[in-house]
Specification:
- There is one protein chain.
- About 35% of the residues lie in helices and about 20% in strands.
- With about 625 residues, the chain is of the alpha/beta class.
- The strands form 4 sheets. A 9-stranded mixed sheet has the order 16-15-12-19-20-21-22-23-24, sandwiched between helices. The chain has a 6-stranded parallel sheet with strand order 2-1-3-4-5-11, sandwiched between helices.
- Helix 8 links the parallel strand 6 and strand 7.
- It is elongated and about 115 Å long.
Length: about 625
Amino acid sequence: MTIKEIANLAGVSISTVSKIVNNKDQNINPETRSRVLKIVKEYNYTPYGNVKSISTAKSFLIGVLLRRGSQTNLMLNGILCVAQEYGYSVLVYDSKDDMETELRHVTSLCKNHVDGIIWEPVSEQSVQYERYFTEQNISVCYINGFTEESFFIDFVRMGYVLTEKLLDYKHMRLACLMKKRSQRSALVLEGFKKCLYDNHVPYSDKMELYISDKEYFSKIIHYDISGIVSSHFASSLILYEQMERLHYYIPSDLSLVSLKDDVREGISFPHISSVKIPYLEFGRYVCMQLIGKCEKKDQDPVYLFKAPYGFDNEDSLDPPAFMRVKKLVVVGSINLDVTFNVDMLPQSGKTTTILNSTTTAGGKGANQAIGAAKLYREVSLIGEIGNDADAAFLFDTLERENVTTQGIHRDLNAQTGKAYIYIEKGGESAVTILSGANGNLSAEGIRKRQYLFKNAGFCLLATEIPIDTVMEAARVSREYGVKNILKPAALKTIPKELLELTDIFIPNRKEAAALCPVTGSVKEQAEYFLGKGMEAVIITLGEEGCYLKTANVSRYFPAADFMSIDATGGADAFISAFASYLSEGFSLEHSIRIATYAAGFCVSRQGVVPALVDRNTLEMHISRLEPELLGTK
């Protein structure tokens, strides 16, 4: 393609084309300039054939000179996309935070006759090198520089948005986690301070934390910080790991929000609530501004780049612990339940035909924990599982049901507990149990996991684990100001101390009769247990409902109207619902009535875990029959 052909295509003179491609076009109409440059780029026209010694000739080449290039993948992608779209090639240089290296790159860019440069200077002194670009008429766009005409991502605004999110969750004791000598951290801190000021939250220097400070985590605990703004995602990951190692957890103990770099894009766990830094969009915008300069287009640049700042998730956010409904702790057995449907229960000397079988998570500990989690309660389960494939199945099930599993220990020398459940058509059942790892849950193990009792309201105890362990759990619970709800399963006798440590006692009819020396009515048995210092005794009566005894109330509650298909998990459903609503502030009697409906749903379905009702279903059903139960706490 010759200059004459370019001129003909553009409808201008040869001299006009020459002036434009050699940057001598000060008096050329901008519209004419744009039209000629478009044709020159499309046809790859090189002025004067192979003569390339003329430094003023357009090269359609731009340079990118970065302070350091380790965290700019998306920004470079944005620059490359726009450059290619407008017919430019790109040279990229990394100064590695060194002015001497930077100067060598400046010289190289000049030798390559670039039309323009996107420049992130190493220091304020770097600006002295601009004269080299000026001498060759090379356009410059600064990013993250030290002049007023430098393009920046609005990190101040992003720090403001992160802080505002924590305030939305009612956090007032906040801190900003930063890196020292980081420009980004300084800007995020500025936004952090501005947001606090706008929301009338006092600021102090104690709110500034640095990841390089060995005492930063101790300061979080000492100052009772409940929410953290982090300027760097890498710092958030370090904090997350250290919290778990010291048995503090996000978001139950601390809410965390962070900026996210493009180099961290692929990290999906842990789920830290983050705002993505808009490097891609920033790169596109700055490149368009540079090309506009190179082609002498009229522009009105905005140096502080803004973008919509949204959170990728809110998984690491929760209100402060003191504002939340108290969580539940469950201490009990964890089994793999194998359920057999039979015509009649097994009998000695007779063969029983199995009609159908299913395998699910089970054990009173697991059942009650899952039952509460389905009712939207925060619940931690403490128990033992074995070193086998069943353990992996149980972990997956519990985590899928949103049960906190930090309190579950894998015993490398035991197999996971199993329950073999036989159910006949009328709903009656027989259960045989292989205790397995459940028998190894020790009092010492409870002490090691006592941190889980922090900020709990109730501890649900079931006695399918060693009785000494149950008693230790009851003691630890009391030490943390947590109330104990005891289900006395599979006990022939019950220690006096355990009764004294129990706040609410929930045996069934058979259990109450076996443990009570009074051979009288349900009322008399309840009276006996209440005399041991408990707040309440609830004796469950199957299809007849339950009986409540307190210092002021003696009352029968009818069972909910459901057909019984499988009565195996009725008590666990009752206890998990009762504790869930009681912890939420519902009265004792209303919590019992709601729990009877949860038990009704469970016994009307096959199995236990699959039959446990979710909150929406439960409350929709109750709202049709007894709406007053849900309207008053």
